[in-house]
Amino acid sequence: MAATEDPSGASGAPARPGGTAPAGSGRSWWGWGRTDEALPDSECTALAALLPGLPPDPLPVPDVGELTLAPPRVRPPGALAHLVSDGPADRASHTYGKAYRDVVRALHGDMTPAPDLVAHPRSEADLVDLLDWAGTADVAVIPYGGGSSVTGGVEYRGGDHAGVLSLDLSAMDRVLEVDTRSRAARIQAGVYGPALEDQLREQGGGLTLRHFPQSFEFSTLGGWLATRAGGHYATLHTHIDDLVESMRVVTPAGTSESWRLPGSGAGPSPDRLFLGSEGALGVITEAWMRLQDRPVHKASTAVRFAEFGDAVEAVRAISQAGLHPANCRLLDPGEAALAGAAHDGESVLVLGVESAHHPVDGRLAELRTLARDHGGTVSGSGGDDSGGGDTAVGAWRSAFLRMPYLRDGLARMSAITETFETACTWDRFTELHEAVRTGIGAAVEEVTGSPGLVNCRMTHVYPDGAAPYYTVIATGRRGAEGAMWDEIKSAAMEILATHRATVTHHHAVGRDHRPGYDRQRPEPFALALRAAKSALDPRGILNPGVLMDPPPREVA
Amino acid sequence: MAATEDPSGASGAPARPGGTAPAGSGRSWWGWGRTDEALPDSECTALAALLPGLPPDPLPVPDVGELTLAPPRVRPPGALAHLVSDGPADRASHTYGKAYRDVVRALHGDMTPAPDLVAHPRSEADLVDLLDWAGTADVAVIPYGGGSSVTGGVEYRGGDHAGVLSLDLSAMDRVLEVDTRSRAARIQAGVYGPALEDQLREQGGGLTLRHFPQSFEFSTLGGWLATRAGGHYATLHTHIDDLVESMRVVTPAGTSESWRLPGSGAGPSPDRLFLGSEGALGVITEAWMRLQDRPVHKASTAVRFAEFGDAVEAVRAISQAGLHPANCRLLDPGEAALAGAAHDGESVLVLGVESAHHPVDGRLAELRTLARDHGGTVSGSGGDDSGGGDTAVGAWRSAFLRMPYLRDGLARMSAITETFETACTWDRFTELHEAVRTGIGAAVEEVTGSPGLVNCRMTHVYPDGAAPYYTVIATGRRGAEGAMWDEIKSAAMEILATHRATVTHHHAVGRDHRPGYDRQRPEPFALALRAAKSALDPRGILNPGVLMDPPPREVA
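Structure tokens for the assembled complex are given below, as produced in the milestone run.
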């Protein structure tokens, strides 16, 4: 639920434009997003009707002041003291990401992995000083991004470091420079999505990054880059990787800055080594990002299919026709019903096209024709607006943004409610999908004793395959929710690996995906990656445990 | 001149369809391509009129049987003998790539860097055995690809290995599997361009790789991947990197195989580490490549501009308009004249669009409008054909394919004639272009004592920048041609580095580009790359000297 998906459909506008960085007050320390958006107790209680066997009352949300946090084991030198906090609220809110298992542990008041300290550097020089100190003091450094990791990417787990520092770059949040000729901007890594787009708007030129993961409000540019986030575009440029012109990365072995280049064939791409490195090789401090003109032509439509298989074939045909829809999101019957986009067992395909330069009606018409050719019923369309012409489009979009809050409400009711996502080539999709539906259905029954929901949507599609995204909702037992989910998740990773489907399309590896990732990653590449880690981070302080086991460390 | 550019313009067909792998007989051992395409002596002599001060007669082409080759210093074990040749013709033809300085040295009979042996493995198992032996015998292994490197990528230079083995994978030349649902094929790395497309045609499905570098006939899939070749598409998917689904790479530390995935966010991309690794980290043996439907709608046009600057602005507008032309090639006045596409000081922009699914007339009309808006004169167009509707398009295309043979003819006349290419963002293009024209013009005068030609074309363009490609033609002194070019090339690398323009957009780094590459590559990435090299190739046998200095070796 972290770095994923487009809240704006074809509308082109972020979901809540005008918002600014949500760091600090207003953010939930235990759950998704903003405290004022969380479900009140009464709405949580009402959710009990969704699943059999849930307790009647929600878990209370602990008061952050009453949490038990171990005393900090390390202290920064005086010169760095002004950058570092050991306040309980700061430490508590930087203990976990926002995975279901994180939320559940927080609700149960389990603060075991809390960092000793939270650092808020204001400049790259601050960051270099912090890393220097951490290296000499054997302090693990965990880049926090916006804290929206759903894969254990920001949580210290195990290891024997003398201390743990959570690194929060949210004070480094400026768009530093805009090059309108090349349509690119130099942007600091700590900026949250809304503030980034606000600054681009203020600086003129009509440019936008157009990267709208579901976490848009609560994640940062640096987090997107470090985790290869999936963005706005359902086709063509689906990952933020393609929007990167150059990056600056501070490593314990020095600062890496690639040249701003539109394209290059000079050796393996330096940026591609740091993209997806999840803070294990260095800390991304800024990047030149490719921008787009703001689209002025937009249109969207929803198509209904009686058979999910027909809808999949329609999506495959669309992905291979070179039409490049900005949105091409398929909801299976369960997902469509959950979103309120359909109630009759139909699947819904939401299609959106946009352009800053050309009318898009022709492309939308071609998309509708392809969808109809595969058995779809086009139920309406909205041209040049936010897609309001079709209620299914609107329903899906509202539900999409509301979903993480709903998940937290369900979590408080001790329902198991989590997602996982993957990607595979088209030749394997049907078999994989059946295996997931059957296998996860069975795992849910085995773990919980009753059936649950296993829904699917496709978030990003490619000419050669698709990225399905699964939602699991099941009855949990209070106090055992996390362990129950872990068992189901383990079954999911086993199924994905058996079908050679990626352990993650855009949620990153973190620590939770290590078992699947270790099977997926070619062993010689693992050797190379470990060697690169040892060269750049010889003391092993950078986000130990993500991507790989900590290599042997040089302790000063 | 190696991995670059589209010989087919918008025509979609390779220049010489139906050709098969040109390995073996018919290939020139000293110059580009096929012996029967080389300029006869009389045509070489006629070229003397082009530049002042050239000798009246061409350098003779040495008889390969009369070359002086040092005796091989190593011998393979008996079990591998059938895979290895020490024949003088085989060794001579695997001594150099096809850079100007390579051709000149060959013409002067300088075979100093000749490999001791040439290996022709027939399978991955053969290759593993060869690498095992090379590791124990301290033999450097140089993957040859198709031998079309123009950057010293296939030439052993310096170093103290006990022997040198050139590795020719041309016996591993099969399309092994085609997945028409996902539009992808598993292809062995040793296949040459024409044979690859022939096999795809034979296997049905109407699919094509559509990667047509200028070297198409004389380069292999493995070479394209190892050097991040620039291909058919002037926009969008310009590098072969984007066409890769997964790769198999044999390294001394084991074989790496990535999963076939349409997209993934699981850690840094394994493929992106091997793409551009130029044989220094492993030997690519096969890849799953993304294919396209064969285009059935094609159209092209030529646009003339009185001012090169206006043409550049037109290209920038086109690159940022989301129209994705397959061809968008700008020839400056000198280049246009050389190609016979214009004779009056005008620049020529060749535009081509293609689609397997939709008529392209509308897109071509939009492109022509944009070109006209920037001062261009549309001189004709050819719809749904090979662009024959405009003589400038046809003239450019013929000249493009003939150019390497012309270069060799000029080389025999002791003219200096070479190219270099780069890329930069739009904000820096004009300044860079002026610096190259002025600086290289001055370097040519200083080195040769008389003015030369410095022409420019743009081969690939991006929303945020462009890849200009420069041709230099000047008067050389017989016997000093190579050294003279090296001086000019050194000035070029200095200018590129000063402007932070990449040392290569698609010709690769090899050994010749090391000075520029070493300045361009961020030092922490260099540390990581060297560490990866040591982990995968601990004995330092793989293409020593490309990308980096050989790290300290474990010698058995």
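Chain B touches chain A through 95 residues (CB under 8 Å). Chain B has two domains: 1-294, 297-510. Further analysis is deferred to the final report.
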